[in-house]
Amino acid sequence: MTRSTLAAASFAAMMLATPVAFAQKADPANTLVIELKSGPVQIQLMPDLAPKHVARVKQLANEGFYNGIKFHRVIDGFMAQSGDPTGTGSGGSKYGSIPAEFSKYVYKRGTVGAARTSDPNSANSQFYICFNDTGCQGLTGQYTVWGQVISGMENVDKIKRGAPGSGAVTDPDVMQKVYLLSNKK
Fold this sequence. Notes:
Cyclophilin; alpha+beta; 8-stranded antiparallel β-sheet; disordered N terminus
């Protein structure tokens, strides 16, 4: 083994053994903040993957649309869904549907995707946050990914779970306030 190979192997071993996370610095214009009763959640928006979805989320956040909206469907081991002003899973914003922007980005813990009907081009305002690395993987390439939680996932974990099967939540948690980090007041 050469000296440079040994040094590279030692560095790699050290990085694997070190529990230090090298977090990327948040871009305030592309960081969505959701304030929950358990604490804030920061989501890095992905305009390179889903420009139309990100533009809609920013628009709705800037309008205050998401403030006070419930997590109406929460399935343990899968995801927490919100973004419906009616709280029924059937509502959306006053704007039209957004065409699908599917990608190969693999769903994992903290991935945020656009909820929709069976029509791939029916996303509007609803979205979900995945609880783990496996629960949402089957959605990869079939539902638009528009964000990834970069901090506060422990607060997402505290969202009240719904009934087994349907995920319908009695007395659901709400998004108290939703805004872009660049607009924090």
